[in-house]
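Design a sequence for this backbone.
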């Protein structure tokens, strides 16, 4: 992998880590929203029974998103470090090769054979791990994006159930539904941005 490409992955991985950290914070807000909605639905009684059931799904979506975001965030940070390590190893190999060419025919040029081999072996190893890490992160982002598609359904169901809860609670429950929809949209934005960044380098 070219040094400049590694540097691009280094930057992208760092951005992805930041994007997923934002998504995680929003998911924590959804979890709080679900808790508040559950309490509100309990006060609303039988009329909001359907909404109360949906809050469990909202809470689960938040939990999955937080967990996945934490995992992807760690993976992105790891990839960022590996990209930096791979770039350094590649640069060291380039310097070794330049030195060998300049010293061609010199008496002691073979003395750097072992350091060169160690560096090349390290580069090959870290580069393989880096490539696997990129594919793993891409898969994790795709999995999270699929999970988040349920948020659109949950938001629509929440609005329907809110309309059946009675006028006293309908507005408050509609606010919850809107908050879930807005938060899910923001999380999807961060995930899609992360996906597009990696796709641009593919």
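Sequence:
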């Amino acid at each position: 992998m070219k040094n400049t490409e590694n540097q691009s992955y280094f930057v992208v991985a760092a951005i992805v880590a930041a994007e997923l950290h934002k998504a995680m914070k929003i998911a924590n807000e959804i979890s709080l929203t679900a808790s508040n909605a559950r309490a509100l639905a309990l006060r609303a009684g039988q009329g909001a029974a359907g909404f109360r059931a949906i809050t469990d799904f909202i809470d689960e979506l938040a939990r999955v998103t937080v967990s996945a975001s934490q995992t992807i965030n760690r993976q992105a940070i790891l990839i960022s470090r590996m990209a930096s390590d791979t770039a350094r190893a590649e640069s060291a190999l380039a310097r070794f090769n330049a030195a060998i060419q300049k010293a061609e025919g010199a008496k002691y040029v073979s003395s750097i054979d072992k350091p060169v081999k160690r560096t090349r072996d390290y580069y090959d190893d870290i580069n393989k791990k880096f490539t696997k890490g990129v594919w793993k992160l891409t898969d994790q982002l795709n999995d999270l994006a699929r999970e988040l598609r349920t948020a659109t359904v949950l938001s629509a169901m929440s609005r329907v159930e809110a309309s059946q809860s009675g006028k006293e609670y309908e507005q408050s429950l509609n606010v919850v539904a809107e908050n879930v929809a807005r938060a899910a949209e923001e999380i999807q934005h961060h995930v899609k941005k992360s996906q597009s960044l990696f796709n641009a380098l593919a």
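The chain has one domain: 3-84+133-201.
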